[in-house]
Amino acid sequence: METDWRQRKIIHIDMDAFYASVEQMDFPELKGKPIAVGGSEVRGVVSAASYEARKFGVRSAMSGVQAKRLCPDLIFVRPRFDRYTEISKRIRAIFREYTDLVEPLSLDEAYLDVTVNKKGNPSATLIAQEIRQRIFDEIGLTASAGISNTKFVAKVASDYNKPNGQKTVPPDEVEAFLEVLDIKKFYGIGKVTAEKMYHHGIFTGADLKARSRVYLEEHFGKSGGFYYNIVRGIHYSEVKPNRVSKSVAAEHTFEENLTSELFMEERLAHIAETLERRLKKYSISGKTVTLKIKYSDFTTQTRSKTLPYYISDKGLLLETAKELLFQERLKESVRLLGISLSNLNTEVKKTVVVQLKFAF
């Protein structure tokens, strides 16, 4: 029913600098220091940065070289994804003591629908406070939360009082809340789209709201209708506890750029083996193999092939990836290779909850 979504009570929980915070918790000598998880001062890409590093402008997806340039005292830490996964499971166990309607987005964030909850608590705000306190008391990490009647507003609100804070936006305050926000604060509007909106004189939610649906669709395509709705607090999406995995991937950033396809074949064999383990862990197979190539100039290219049958075997993954590798000449030397499998059997076989973003 159309009225149902307006009465929902949705919490978005977002852990604060999760990977970096886990490292600082496990290794007290890193507390209070600028650290980057992943990368190095000569290679690789930063996966996460502590708040101490963020003050210098260090961000995830930034090259290690650039991060070190911004913060000369930056400490690089090797990722420990098994540890992050272990802690994430403990956090989700806390969530499920309150509701079964938990939709994980990644290891460090999730939506919870607490409209009807196991504690019988009518206040989503108090539930969010209690969950955040339990995460701190039982695990030792801080989390931030956003609370509203839609997933979109809850997601935006969770970033409002970070770190270690929360923001509640009641249904009757949603439009006023969104109107004063800078458009770049809207979840789903990235840097490129924000720049385009600025070009059209759209700087705040109020500016966006002043544009007609026709205008937005004309200049922003199908997304225009989405923007028209969200700035008015209209978002029908439900919290879906069993998200069907759309792809599973593995990739590797090399210590030195590769120029020889023979060396790349060797690396692809290791990546295919890693991907096979992840697929077999969840009994997943798929038909579409995608090869990801990141060049030394940081541009990325993908090449895909859809097979007439489902695969999960490392030999078939490697064979297809090699075919894609030799499909056309490489533009530059290569710093990263990755293989992903999509068009999965999970849609026809079963629903599998799986962390989709893997690091090698």
Describe the structure in your own words:
The chain is α+β, with helices and mostly antiparallel strands. Helix content is 37%, strand content 22%. The chain contains 14 helices and twelve strands. It has a five-stranded mixed β-sheet with strand order 5-6-1-7-8. A four-stranded antiparallel β-sheet has the order 9-12-10-11. A hairpin with a 4-residue loop joins β10 and β11. α11 crosses α12 and α13 runs antiparallel to α14 (314-325).
> What is the tally of beta strands?
12
Q: Fraction of residues in helices?
A: 25-40%
Portion in strands: 15-25%
User: Radius of gyration from the CA trace?
Assistant: 22 Å
Low-confidence stretches: 348-360
Described by its quaternary structure, the protein is: single chain
Order of H and E elements: HEHEEHHEHEEHEHEHHHHHEHEEHE
Structure classification: alpha+beta
The side-by-side strand order for the widest beta sheet comes to: 5-6-1-7-8
Shape: globular
- Largest sheet geometry: 5 strands, mixed
Mean pLDDT rating? 89
Termini separation: 44 Å
